[in-house]
């Protein structure tokens, strides 16, 4: 969910090589999803402040996973990112 470039800008740039490897290969937290090529190109390395899943019903799941990864790896969150995540999390039942 959190692209490597976004993680780098959010604090991973100061990690050891071992920590970056752990992040990139973490199978415990949802980091990668199979999506169409068009969706993948549209998302790129953007955060939720600039891109949200086209399926509105999936935004709660996406925001929850994004928040989990950022929290687990103690990555920073911008104010715009936080606002959008809050909005997306408010769609959770």
Q: Could you please describe the fold and organization of this structure?
A:
There is one protein chain. The relative contact order is 0.19. This protein has five helices and no strands. It has helices spanning 4-9, 17-24, 37-43, 59-72, 79-89. It is globular, with a radius of gyration of 13 Å. With 93 residues, it is an all-alpha fold. The protein has one domain (4-89).
Q: How large is the radius of gyration?
A: 13 Å
| Domain count | 1
Count of DSSP strands: 0
Annotation field: number of helices: 5
User: N- to C-terminal separation?
Assistant: 21 Å
N-to-C order of helices and strands:
HHHHH
Overall geometry comes to globular
Which percent range describes the beta-strand content? under 5%
What's the helical proportion of residues? 40-55%
Largest sheet: none
User: What is the overall pLDDT average?
Assistant: 88
Low-confidence parts lasting 5 or more residues at pLDDT below 50? none
Oligomer: single chain
Class inferred from helices and paired strands:
mainly alpha
Relevant terms:
49% helix; mainly alpha; 93 residues; 5 helices
Helices, strands, pairings?
Layout lengths: L3 H6 L7 H8 L12 H7 L15 H14 L6 H11 L4
Structure, briefly:
This protein has 93 residues and is mostly helical. The protein has helices at 4-9, 17-24, 37-43, 59-72, 79-89. It contains five helices and no strands.
């Amino acid at each position: 969910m959190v692209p490597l470039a976004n993680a780098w800008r959010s604090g991973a740039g100061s990690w050891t090589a071992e920590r970056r490897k752990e992040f990139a290969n973490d199978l415990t937290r949802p980091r990668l999803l199979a999506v169409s090529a068009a969706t993948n190109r549209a998302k790129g390395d953007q955060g939720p402040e600039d891109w949200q899943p086209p399926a509105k019903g999936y935004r709660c799941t996406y925001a929850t996973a994004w928040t989990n990864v950022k929290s687990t790896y103690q990555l920073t969150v911008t104010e715009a990112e936080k606002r959008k995540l809050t909005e997306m999390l408010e769609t959770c039942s």
